[in-house]
Design goal:
With about 800 residues, this protein is an alpha+beta fold. Helices cover about 50% and strands about 15% of the residues. It is built from 24 helices and 23 strands. β19 (about 585-590) and β20 form a beta hairpin. α14 packs antiparallel against α20 (about 675-710).
């Protein structure tokens, strides 16, 4: 054992001396490994938080989301939460689950704690909080008796307790007002409970005894979570849920005809959409690692060729190839460990910067952290890159039957060595081109999405939601009156150009659909058509500058006492009345018949990346509900933020208990919706840039080595009168041909990769293929520069000195 340790110490001492003597090569290895590990660790941290690390809930692997599928649809994107009556039935009929719990989230006006504010609140079934592992810090949860009685009790989050109540321990038992109704605070949750899939900081009971005692039992959609019995697979649970849904459809054909149900693991529901993106980024990191291995192998092969005399001397003095391989392995492990540390440090810096590209990343991607598992994976990646690239040249040397060891002549590479180095450079160039093409396409996609028309003018538009509680505004007429009063007051403010309301809350991931029947356009099963849905006040299209293509817009004369009207989007008119005029047609929604009085342009008002779809607009004054938000949109002459205080004051003058919530600029919201695309595009662009840098370094190293080996030849050519420019191009052309060969293979691979990516990146478009040309040009310029620099140095040598040598 002691002899073994002595040997290891001796090997390490020799390696350190060799690294000190050739520190530039060691520095190249460290930088390369650090860059690859930094990029890989950043991605591993995100993947660990979403797809690997256990969900932060008890028995998280047994939690599933139950969803319904509308008639005539098959896409997962069309699935939605359950109706209240569905939850009540599933609770009774499912035997493979321990619990079925639901939550209905909505913003509510909180009073009794200073000035009224809007809070994120949720009505939840009795076991919802404990199902997700919530713990009480003060007070208690509500009892079954309180739930059965639909008691007005509330549990608040630790954050809301600190922020709104100053951490007052006497808050338990205190009476507050939610939407002007009295509630008693009975508990405060422990810090840290904030489920990512439902945003709330205040919880009240949601009683679902038979599914009929909730507000609008047929129209209220409630996200539902079930915990399966131990040992029950997703497939078994799905079969039982689908069978139960078929029985519900048979019992309730009027409301459920054509509907189906499905289940999805909670992890898949939360992070499944990120899986394909992570796979794409992981593949890019893998390509970057291959480029790094080829690059380092090339540099180390050149060093091995230069050290052949030394290696021959060692072998002649009795050293074995096993000993030489062991020395190289010690060097690789040492450099890999240091490079891993530098890469992890780089990841600590880069992860917050990457998360900043998507403001919602902390909610949609979970808590990103670099834990020991991620560090271990980073170390493995570093060692793989360092050891693989280091052993390749050593093993090649081991296969040689003899070495050039003459002390009077420098060792030079054979033709086989030269071809191998060029092959590595070609591979680097091809892989770098793949990264450059994919990165350029992704960045071009983000640029196109951010610049393409939204169908409306988002500049200088402020959005703020008003929620009108049924206790204060019990009917359609009362809600329409207060909205009209607010709009009249806001329109009179200095600097306000126009104002109206819409149902769209301008929150990411939120949009509304409805089922309509089109006169003369019935579906085969008679279930109706699903289209996007908006309630809008008079002046909405003028405020948002949405063009009216035919007929008229919603006006002040569309009241609760006048015939109900509808405005349809251009895509809806073209879909249901192709080649015909839509104005004058009739549609039926929720039992009411509406006359189409206008056609407006398509808009992307729920996200810049969201394609426009058939949309129907109805007059808010004719059709509104207490649970539906009324988002006020205000166009201002100057910066919208300057008008917030005045608008808020006007609203409070009309109703002192009506807070504005979700106040923000529409243009900023549209930018935020591009966050995921920007995140993917930027990260791919960074990886592509690193790949290009590593490829350029490899081209430089190989060209420099080739120039050194051809020094005598270049000197002879110059001494015999060859043109310096021609000699320079002779050297550069050889490198360019190698790069061109690799780029040709990379171009073919890029086409296949882009074709495969179209399924993972829906917004990827062949129209962005123009971005491939700049990517290829960047690689060509980098190759010429990397090859031209050492060639230029060679031309500066004195031919007479070269010939004398």
């Amino acid at each position: 054992m002691a002899r073994y340790l002595d040997a290891v110490v001796l090997d390490a001492t020799q390696v350190v001396r060799r690294l000190r003597r050739r520190w530039t090569g060691a520095l190249a290895v460290l930088v390369t490994v650090a860059l690859v590990v930094g990029a890989g660790t950043s991605l591993l941290a995100v993947v660990s938080a979403t797809l690997v690390r256990p969900l932060p809930y008890p028995d998280g692997d047994r939690l599933f989301v139950i969803q319904t599928q509308p008639p005539g649809t098959s896409s997962r994107a069309d699935r939605g939460p359950l109706h209240a009556i569905d939850i009540a039935r599933f609770r009774r009929e499912l035997t493979t689950v321990e619990a079925v719990e639901g939550a209905w989230a909505r913003d509510r006006a909180l009073g009794g704690a200073g000035e009224p504010v809007s809070v994120e609140a949720a009505q939840v079934t009795p076991g919802f909080l404990t199902l997700l592992g919530a713990r009480i810090a003060a007070g208690r949860f509500w009892t079954d008796a309180e739930d059965d009685a639909d008691a007005r009790v509330a549990v608040i989050s630790h954050g809301l307790w600190q922020r709104q109540f100053g951490g007052d321990p006497g808050v338990v038992g205190r009476t507050i007002r939610l939407d002007r109704e009295a509630y008693q605070v009975i508990g405060v949750l422990a810090a840290g409970f904030r489920p990512s899939f439902i945003v709330s900081e205040l919880w009240t009971p949601l009683h679902l005894a038979d599914g009929a005692n909730t507000p609008n039992p047929r129209n209220t959609y409630i996200p539902t979570i079930a915990r399966a019995q131990p040992g029950i697979s997703e497939a078994v649970l799905r079969d039982e849920v689908q069978a139960a849904m078929r029985r519900i459809v048979a019992d309730l054909p009027a409301t459920h005809n054509g509907w189906s149900a499905d289940v999805l693991s909670l992890r898949e529901q939360e992070y499944g959409d990120h899986g394909r993106a992570f796979a794409m980024l992981g593949a890019a990191i893998g390509v970057l690692a291959l480029i790094a291995i080829a690059n380092l192998a090339n540099l180390r092969l050149a060093r091995a060729i230069a050290e052949r005399n030394e290696i021959g001397m060692r072998l002649a003095l009795g050293a074995s190839w096993l000993h030489l391989v062991r020395l190289q392995l010690v060097e690789d492990v040492l450099l890999g460990a240091i490079g891993a540390g530098l890469g992890v440090a780089l990841a600590f810096i880069s992860v917050p910067l990457l998360m900043g590209l998507d403001p919602n990343a902390s909610r949609t991607l979970g808590q990103i952290s670099i834990d020991w598992a991620v560090v271990g994976a980073a170390a493995a990646l570093a060692l793989a890159v360092s050891v693989t690239s280091g052993l390749v040249p050593v093993m090649r040397e081991a296969r040689r039957q003899s070495l050039t060891g003459s002390s009077g002549r420098r060792a030079v590479g054979s033709r086989r060595d030269t071809r191998f180095r060029r092959l590595l450079v070609a591979a680097e160039a091809g892989l770098a081109l793949v990264l450059l093409v994919v990165g350029a396409l992704m960045l071009a996609t983000v640029s196109r999405l951010s610049e393409r028309g939204l169908g409306f003018d988002a500049a200088n538009v402020l959005a703020a939601q008003m929620r009108l509680p049924e206790s204060a505004y019990p009917n359609t007429r009362a809600r329409a009156r207060v909205v009209a009063d607010v709009l009249e007051a806001v329109r009179a403010l200095p600097g306000v150009v126009a104002a109206s309301t819409t149902q769209n809350p301008f929150r990411r991931g939120i949009f509304f659909v409805t089922q309509v029947e089109i006169e003369g356009r019935r579906t085969p099963d008679g279930a109706g058509h699903f289209v996007q849905f908006r309630r809008a006040s008079d002046g909405y299209f003028e405020t948002m500058r949405i063009p009216v293509l035919d007929g008229r817009a919603i006006s002040a004369r569309d009241t609760v006492d006048s015939p109900q009207v509808a405005i349809v989007s251009q895509s809806m008119a073209e879909r249901f009345w192709p080649g015909e005029r839509a104005v004058g047609r009739r549609i039926t929604r929720a039992g009411s018949t509406l006359e189409v009085v206008g056609v407006v342009g398509d808009v992307r008002d729920v996200g810049a990346a969201q394609p426009p779809g058939p949309t129907v607009y109805v007059a808010y004054a004719q059709n509104n509900a207490a649970i539906a938000v009324a988002t006020m949109v205000v166009r201002t002459a100057g910066p919208p933020a300057d008008a917030v205080a005045a608008i808020r004051a006007k609203v409070l003058e009309i109703d002192p208990d009506l807070p504005l919530e979700g106040v923000g600029e529409v243009a900023e919201f549209m930018t935020i919706t591009l966050g995921p695309d920007r995140f993917r595009g930027t990260l791919l662009g960074v990886i592509a840039g690193l790949g290009l840098l590593l490829a350029a370094v490899g081209i430089y190293g190989v060209t420099a080595c080739a120039v050194e080996e051809r020094t005598r030849e270049i000197g002879v050519r110059l001494a015999l009168g060859a043109n310096a420019r021609g000699v320079w191009w002779l050297v550069v052309a050889q490198a360019v041909r190698t790069v061109a060969f690799g780029a040709a293979a990379g171009a073919a691979a890029s086409a296949a990769v882009v074709f495969a990516l179209r399924t993972a990146v829906p917004n990827l478009d062949w129209a962005d293929a123009w971005s491939v040309a700049p990517a290829a040009a960047v690689l060509a310029v980098a190759a010429c520069v990397a090859a031209g620099i050492p060639a230029a140095f060679a031309l500066r040598a004195d031919p007479t000195v070269v010939l004398r040598q």
